[in-house]
Design brief:
Elements (H helix, E strand, L loop, with lengths): L11 E5 L9 H11 L3 E8 L25 H12 L2 E7 L2 E2 L1 H6 L14 E2 L2 E3 L5 H17 L5 E3 L20 H6 L13 H26 L5 E3 L5 E6 L11 H12 L5 E6 L1 E3 L2 E5 L2 H13 L3 E7 L10 H13 L1 H4 L3 E2 L3 E5 L4 H13 L4 E5 L13 E5 L12 E5 L8 E6 L2 H4 L3 E2 L3 E2 L4 E5 L3 E3 L2 E2 L21 E4 L2 E4 L3 H8 L2 H11 L11 E8 L2 E8 L3 E2 L2 E2 L8 E4 L7 E3 L4 E3 L5 E4 L5 E6 L1
Protein name: Beta-galactosidase trimerisation domain-containing protein
InterPro entries: Class_I_gatase-like, GH, GHL6
């Protein structure tokens, strides 16, 4: 089978164009991309506005195309890029139509529970169930493919538009097409009965549409991949910030790992947003923050992409300097990133619920230097677990691990042993003052269980916590805080949430000690260790997380040097950032100082 271009590492730059940018200088943008280290240009092509002279009645030509001698931005870009060996992919946005088309085709439009359409900046949102997405989208793709040899497509904002750009919630779509396709009465909003069923319906509609787009492109132009959700040719992740959203410092790494663990050989594109938030598109992201998008992406095996509004000349964001440095690093070490797949021996399942529990266990493993991969709970049934020595289950409830025979470390409600649950403490008042043997405090939820297995960390009865004269009476009980049977360990309480919310190392260490598998090193806990395998050998990314701080990334403090044990049989180690060859002495190497990151290639 022919190897397609996007199955090898690539580096993208996206110019998310305003209508006034249609007269941009193609050659100057391509000069910038080449210097930046990018080999792929994601260009705004069609949908809301067509940056080419469309002949389709339901599409709108960008009026600023009149400022180009050719009248065709897409055509000019494709021809000029081809001369330089740069690929052009088409950004399409079918989420909205103008007022005239909305009036002519009301059946295409989103309709809220109250009967109102969703209008934003004069554009009306459309519904994926309707004819615009289901039929007209393919006519647009055909027109573009008939005219231009584009190297791929990305469809922006392909969703049911429950929330608009201002984060206003509009509810579930009640258009005619949704009513005809949905079996039963449509719910109105997130709180209505049946909303979970509607979520499954909406995911099915989008998955079906994604599959049809992918099949259509494969039949017309097989070398042009679709960039979209986790079922497309290239999995898309947007690394972004948002005003008012709590920063999870590991969001990019987690998202890429979740995709690569599920389908290791499928490319992932991390499109890193150069601005702070949608309402602040002229404001550059902090360079230290932006650097984390790209470093976390490439460490987990994703292709880096930088996304700006307008053109490099009109929006020279401060973060673009470091973005170029990291993009060129990826370009210069393409042999290391070719076929890079996860190689950790510990799997951390990401639950549908219990986010705090997951994040606490995530931090525990990272800080204790236990390399791990992330897998969404809903993907457990389709994943090969056999290569993992340990699977960690953060409060997932009943779970089926199939024939998996390795070690399991479970927390909270994860049902992996035949135990009897007698009661649950789940409010703050119910758990308050609850300790386990050794003075281990319990936070979150605690299940009182009976188990005919080895038990430990027995609970102590709660006692008064007011005046110190009365603070006594913590009597040992038979309620275990940990149960072991064979290769299974269960903490019947939210030990991860406890660490996430309180930060006591006793919680982290109790969990991580049961998981095991830590890399032997004297690097501090602020260095994250990510392991993988590629065409170049065994690859270890060392990420300096000393800059992780409240709601931002500060400049990392230089760390090192330090010793690190490498796998048995490694003869040679190259440190790519330090540009050093590290001698292997009895299985150990001396790692150079780490500023932002380094990459060790072991052969």
């Amino acid at each position: 089978m022919m190897r397609l271009w996007w199955q090898d590492p690539f580096r993208m730059f996206q110019t998310n164009l305003r209508e006034i940018d249609a007269a941009l200088g193609v050659e100057s943008v391509l000069d910038y991309l080449e210097d930046f280290g990018a080999d792929t240009w994601l260009l705004s092509v069609g949908g809301i506005l067509s940056n080419y002279p469309t002949d389709l009645e339901f599409q709108t030509r960008n009026p600023y195309l009149a400022e180009r001698p050719s009248g065709d931005l897409v055509g000019d870009a494709v021809k000029a890029a081809a001369r330089r060996g740069i690929r052009v992919m088409g950004r399409m946005d079918f989420s909205k139509i103008d007022h005239r088309r909305a009036e002519a085709h009301p059946d295409w439009c989103f309709v809220g529970p109250s009967g109102a359409r969703q209008v934003y900046n004069g554009l009306t949102s459309v519904c994926p169930s309707g004819g615009y997405y289901q039929v007209k989208l393919f006519e647009v793709l055909d027109e573009v493919l008939d005219r231009y040899p584009l190297d791929g497509f990305f469809c922006n904002w392909m969703s049911f538009n429950e929330v608009d750009y201002s984060r206003v919630y509009h509810g579930v779509c009640h258009c005619v097409a949704c009513q005809e396709r949905y079996d039963g009465a449509l719910p109105d909003d997130r709180d209505a009965p049946g909303y979970a069923d509607w979520q499954r319906f909406s995911k099915d509609v989008l998955a079906d549409l994604t599959g049809r787009i992918r099949d259509h492109l494969a039949a017309r132009r097989p070398e042009a991949p679709l960039v979209l959700g986790d079922q497309a040719d290239i999995v898309f992740h947007e690394a972004n910030n948002a005003v008012g959203r709590r920063l999870w410092h590991h969001r990019t790494s987690e998202s890429v790992s979740a995709a690569k663990t599920f389908r290791p050989t499928v490319p992932v594109l991390t499109n890193s947003v150069g601005f702070v938030d949608m309402p602040y598109r002229m404001a550059s992201e902090d360079p230290h923050h932006f650097a984390q998008y790209l470093v976390q992406a490439i460490a987990r095996g994703a292709n880096p992409s930088t996304y700006i509004m307008g053109t490099p000349a009109t929006t020279p964001y401060a973060c673009l300097e470091v973005a170029g440095q990291l993009t060129r690093f990826h370009r210069d070490h393409v042999d290391v990133y070719r076929e890079l797949v996860p190689a950790a021996q510990t799997l951390l399942v990401r639950p549908v619920h219990s986010r705090a529990e997951f994040e606490g266990l995530y931090l525990s493993l990272l800080q204790r230097h236990v390399p791990f991969d992330v897998l969404p709970e809903e993907r457990l049934g389709g994943a090969d677990l056999s290569r993992y020595r340990t699977v960690a289950l953060p409060d997932v409830g009943p779970v089926d691990l199939g024939a998996y025979a390795g070690r399991v470390v479970a927390t909270g409600t994860s049902t992996v042993l035949p135990i009897r649950r007698l009661a649950r403490y789940e409010t703050e008042a119910e758990v308050r003052s609850l300790h386990l043997e050794g003075g281990v405090p319990v936070f979150g939820t605690f299940d009182v269980i009976e188990a005919p297995f080895e038990v430990g960390l027995r609970a102590l009865s709660r006692a008064p916590y007011g005046p110190p004269e009365k603070c006594h009476g913590h009597v040992p009980l038979d309620h275990p805080g940990m149960v072991k049977h064979g290769n299974v360990v269960l903490f019947p309480w939210t030990i991860g949430r406890a660490y996430r919310e309180v930060g006591l190392s006793v919680h982290r260490d109790l969990f991580a000690d049961q998981v095991g598998g830590a890399v032997e090193t004297d690097l501090p806990e602020q260095v994250e260790i990510v392991v993988g395998r590629s065409a170049a050998g065994y690859v270890v990314h060392l990420l300096n997380r000393s800059g992780d701080t409240d709601q931002r990334f500060a400049p990392p403090v230089r760390i090192g040097s330090a010793r690190l044990r490498v796998p048995d049989g490694v003869r040679e180690v190259r440190a790519l950032v330090a540009q050093e060859r590290l001698p292997v002495d009895d299985g150990w190497v001396q790692v150079p100082e780490i500023e932002l990151f380094d990459v060790l290639v072991c052969v």
